[in-house]
Amino acid sequence: MSTNTGESGVLALDMPAPGPDPVLERAFRRAMDGLYLVFQPIVSWTEREIVAYEALVRTCEPELARPDLLFSAAERLDMIIPVGRRIRRGVAQLVSTAPERVALFVNVHGGELADPDLYDPASPLSRVAHRIVLEITERWSLDRFHDIGERISALRDLGFRVAVDDLGAGYAGLTSFARLRPEVVKLDMSLIRGVDQDPTRQHLIRSLNGACRDLGIRVVAEGVETKEERDTLVALGSNLLQGYLFSKPARAFPVVETSVWDADYTQVKGWPARTAQAELLELRDALNALLGTLPTEPAVRAPSIATAGEVAALGRRALRSVEALLATNNLPSLEPGALSLPAPKLARTA
Question: What domains can be seen in the chain, in order of their start residue?
Answer without folding.
Answer: 3-264 (3.20.20.450), 276-326 (no CATH)
